[in-house]
Amino acid sequence: MTLLVTGSAGFIGSCVMRQLVAETDETIVSIDALTYAGNPLSFGEAAHSPRHHFEHADIRDEARMRGIFEKYQPRAILHLAAESHVDRSIHGPAEFVSTNVIGTLTLLQVALDYWRGLPEPQKSAFRFQHISTDEVFGSLSPTDPAFEETTPYAPNSPYSASKAGSDHLVRAWHHTYGLPTLMTNCSNNYGPYHFPEKLIPLMILNALEGKPLPVYGDGLNVRDWLYVEDHARALRLVLERGTPGETYNVGGAAERKNIDVVHTLCAVLDELHPQGAPHNRLITYVKDRPGHDRRYAINFNKLESELGWRPQESFETGLRKTVQWYLDNPDWVASVRSGDYRKWVEKNYEGRN
Ligand code: NAD
Ligand code: TYD
């Protein structure tokens, strides 16, 4: 049995990969273009497994994708490859439409042709699993109920609009062609191997270096946080037990205001890395992100009641593990903070003070 995983060198894809290699007997073919966000060091132990085959390829390269399906004859594909950072999408939206929409279209076409040619029972068992985000549902007020699977789409950023576009394609490929698709919409993830342009790893590394902790706007925007290993477990469960054509919300039951996240993080750092305490003296309010969504919240009752999934980590236990991981892995951190990373930090934060 072989599984394809796209975006396998990224934050969530690499976690899925490491879990699959450690906890199953399957062969994993991992596909990644190794953009700035992809790092083969994130494969961890899975890098050396004889059951892991890495294909350095772009999902928009139709011929390569056809070749990979042909060669490995997968039983399913977990599609995580994407441009994933809202701030970058504001500076350069075209790449988001290209990878997230055209890349997904390319994979859907290749998977559809492959699926049509499969004999039974492999054809009925095949799955195209698309990994999406809660950001496609737009922004909530403090009193709105959490997003459900039936909440209408209202994406507000170039990132979420491009993810919404890809979600609609996946839905249509099931409805029109019968491709057995699965989709998940998940809240904000955090954990080990997270690229340090996103809130939590950026704050950890800035705090360790005594740099300002840049909180956008009034710091009262709310996100729901899920530990990445819990997300990976949810994805594996949906792959095995989800119903084709259905979507599943995945969340952490951990809504937090950004400023509270940063204060909690500072308290954990004070304990695990007391040099530099109190770290919250570094908190600096900066100019807001344009179009900044106020609140996301996820109702994951469907996943819990139908498939029995719940997060295993609380925000506090997950955050502690995350901080400890960054303290223990300076080599990984150094490997992702290239010249390009420094250029991005300058571009995103200049003029915000
Ligand atoms: P990430 O940016 O860390 O990783 C994305 C990976 O995709 C990188 O390894 C990159 O090299 C690869 N990639 C980008 N363009 C590619 C292309 N054209 N061809 C092949 N590979 C390409 O992102 P992530 O946080 O791991 O997110 C993975 C998926 O989960 C995305 O689809 C994202 O929308 C979704 N998601 C993320 C979160 C989150 O909090 N991070 C939450 C919900 C959903
Ligand atoms: P981010 O990690 O970029 O995820 P997303 O925008 O997809 O939710 O940001 C999480 C929250 O943190 C979001 O409300 C923006 C805010 N934020 C800051 O306040 N400062 C920062 O430097 C960054 C990167 C994000």
TrEMBL record:
Domain NAD(P)-binding as annotated: residue spans: 4-322
InterPro entries documented for this protein: dTDP_Gluc_deHydtase, NAD(P)-bd_dom, NAD(P)-bd_dom_sf
Any Pfam family matching the protein: GDP_Man_Dehyd
GO terms of molecular function: dTDP-glucose 4,6-dehydratase activity
Cofactor(s) of this protein: NAD(+)
Superkingdom of the organism of origin: Bacteria
Catalytic activity, reaction form: dTDP-alpha-D-glucose = dTDP-4-dehydro-6-deoxy-alpha-D-glucose + H2O
Documented EC number(s): 4.2.1.46
Signal peptide: none
Keywords, sorted A to Z: Lyase, NAD
SUPFAM superfamilies: NAD(P)-binding Rossmann-fold domains
GO biological process assignments: nucleotide-sugar metabolic process
Group of enzyme by EC: lyase
PANTHER family given in the database record: DTDP-D-GLUCOSE 4,6-DEHYDRATASE-RELATED
Protein family (similarity comment): Belongs to the NAD(P)-dependent epimerase/dehydratase family. dTDP-glucose dehydratase subfamily.
NCBIfam families given in the database record: dTDP_gluc_dehyt (TIGR01181)
Protein name: dTDP-glucose 4,6-dehydratase
